[in-house]
Design brief:
Number of domains: 3
Strand order of the largest sheet: 2-1-10-9-7-8
Strand content: 25-35%
Largest sheet: 6 strands, antiparallel
Oligomer: single chain
CATH topology of the largest domain: Phosphatase 2c, domain 1
Helix content: 25-40%
CATH superfamily of the largest domain: PPM-type phosphatase domain
Radius of gyration: 33 Å
Structural class: alpha+beta
Number of helices: 14
Length: 570
């Protein structure tokens, strides 16, 4: 059996074009990056300008390397074009594109801080550092080495943090230790005691302990550690603090914990103000303390380790939440795509073709074709305001309401009721533009245009947009009354229904595709098969946008009327 490659702890911080952030752990080598999941990518970037097989991160010889696997404009590390560079913590990876993804390579702060500390300890003299067996230096160093193994352990988080807290109490010879963390969603608010331990690795009830809020506040304001070996010689504010007096405390250590800590010593542990605040490591005792230089360095390294564990736990929790959301969105996407008509069949008096490309995992566009009796066929294209799950839910509601018309109903009455329902539930915050048509076998088209762009009519070699008459979008204006308009289609007339993702598609200079360009494209194509028409429109839009990121779903529905004689022949 081949040996399993064990990778050091490394995470990619993925900054999307809208500046949202997510974290993806590097779980294997090679770790593939690119557009789309169908090519086996572990990190999927939804920017059409990025190649499908873009890059890979390789672990080799104890280092991570970035490998270019076909990105058209090359890969850039910290703003400079690079070929297969070794990655360091904090390196920024970009793709030579404006308004696209940025990937920041992150490694464990402890993995960088611990070797540095051991190097410093190795260079100390026995007498100058207090590093001697009699002083307990070897035992404390052993605690540090044990703590470094915790970061990659599979133990539950509370067990890891509890052991870390026990080590901190042992190093300082404190009476008790606390881990305080901010409330979720309120990093600047009150700190809560997450774990409490006393000497001897004994668990304490968090409610039974009152840490010195004065010392905690000073450490947070200072952005660095507060170490008081004897409170009798401390500042007046600490000596007079109510909790210190009440508990007869003589020594206190308070260390604020930050993500990606780079502190070298407790005396100079001033964290950058933009670092993420994770919590506070608090230790106190009723006896004065005497910390050697080694004690302080070991305690500092333990604090870095504790920050790394907390930070990793935060990343893991975010990753789990992201995966859960992706799973739920994936289910919604599958349901939505399953509800759209697939393999559209030709009806006796019309041929149809349609397609939908949501700009997000789930979209707000919807189209459908269904028979109403033997003589009529209904078709529609709707565009719900907004994007994502909210819009998808409304499209599903519209589909359920409108396909119920197969049982027989006046389309105007149905739209009136749907619009009233959405207006009455204003908290939904959604409305929909829609073009709804019912085509009879004899070519009579009864339609309602509810604020939707006019479909294009191909007739006699000319393309025009005649369906401008209509009303407000469904669910936008209360008490709107919809009514049907009528037009007679001629044999081989073709209707091209589209969402505004087609005409409002933008190129890199933010110029819009526009209705005129669509009409020009369709002129003279009345004899083209519907599949070719659909393909030509999509290719035209894609060529116009030149890979620019789009903000709207793209949906097409093409309907071609056949004369009664043709229908009988078919």
């Amino acid at each position: 059996m081949a040996d399993t490659l064990i990778l050091p702890d490394a995470v990619l911080e993925v900054v999307s074009p809208d500046r949202k952030r997510r974290f993806v752990r590097i779980t294997q080598s090679p770790f593939l990056i690119g557009r789309g999941e169908e090519t086996g990518n572990h990190l999927n970037l939804t920017d059409r300008r990025i190649s499908r097989q873009c890059a890979a991160i390789i672990f080799e010889g104890g280092k991570f390397y970035l490998e270019d696997r076909g990105q058209r404009r090359g890969l850039f590390v910290n703003g400079e074009k690079a070929e297969n560079p070794a990655l360091s913590a904090g390196d920024s990876i970009t793709f030579g594109l404006e308004d696209s993804y940025e990937i920041i390579f992150r490694t464990s702060a402890a993995e960088e801080g611990i070797p540095n500390l051991l190097t410093r300890i190795g260079g100390m003299t026995m007498s100058g550092s207090g590093f001697s067996p009699s002083a307990g230096g070897l035992g404390k160093l052993n605690l540090l080495l044990e703590a470094t193994t915790l970061l990659h352990s599979q133990l539950p988080l509370d067990s890891v943090l509890g052991t870390m807290l026990d080590h901190s109490v042992a190093v300082t010879d404190a009476d008790r230790g606390l881990l305080l963390v901010p409330n979720e969603g309120d990093p600047g608010g009150m700190l809560n005691v997450q774990l409490a331990r006393k000497r001897g690795a004994t668990r304490l009830s968090p409610e039974s302990i009152t840490p010195s809020q004065t010392a905690v506040r000073q450490a947070i304001e200072k952005h660095g550690a507060i170490v008081t070996e004897d409170l009798a010689q401390a500042g007046v504010d600490l000596q007079a603090a109510q909790s210190i007096v009440a508990q007869r405390l003589r020594s206190i250590v308070v260390i604020p914990l930050y993500a990606a800590s780079r502190a070298n010593t407790m005396e100079s542990a001033i964290e950058p103000r933009h670092s993420t605040f994770l919590g506070v490591l608090y230790l106190d005792s009723t006896r004065p303390a005497a910390f050697s230089k080694l004690d302080r360095q070991i305690l500092d390294a333990l604090a870095v380790e504790a920050a790394s564990i907390l930070d990793n736990a935060r990343l893991v929790e975010r990753e789990r939440e992201r995966q859960r959301m992706e799973q739920e969105i994936g289910i919604a996407r599958d349901i939505q795509q399953a509800l759209l008509p697939h393999g559209l069949k030709d009806y006796p008096h019309l041929a149809v073709s349609g397609i939908n490309f949501p700009c997000l995992a789930v979209g707000g566009d919807y189209f459908d074709v269904f028979p109403i009796g033997e003589e009529q066929t209904a078709f529609l294209l709707a565009d719900v305001s907004g994007k994502g799950l909210g819009a998808a839910l409304v499209t599903t509601m519209l589909q359920g309401a409108l396909t119920g018309m197969t049982l027989g109903a006046d389309p105007a009455l149905v739209l009136n009721r749907i619009s009233d329902f959405l207006c009455e539930h204003s908290e939904v915050g959604r409305y929909a533009t829609m073009f709804f048509g019912i085509l009879n076998r004899n070519g009579e088209l009864e339609y309602i245009n509810a604020g939707h762009p006019s479909p294009v009519l191909l007739r006699g070699g000319k393309a025009e947009a005649p369906f401008t008459e209509g009303s407000f979008p469904v669910g936008l204006v209360p008490d709107t009354e919809y009514s049907c308009s009528r037009i007679k289609l001629e044999p081989n007339d073709t209707l091209v229904l589209f969402s505004d993702g087609v005409t409002e598609a933008m190129d890199p200079e933010e110029a819009m595709y526009g209705t005129e360009r669509l009409l020009e494209l369709l002129n003279g194509q009345e004899e083209s098969p519907l599949a070719d028409l659909q393909k030509n429109i999509l290719e035209s839009v894609e060529n116009f946008t030149r890979g620019a990121r789009q903000a709207d779903d793209v949906t097409l529905l093409l309907v071609r009327y056949r004369a009664a004689a043709q229908a009988a022949t078919v």
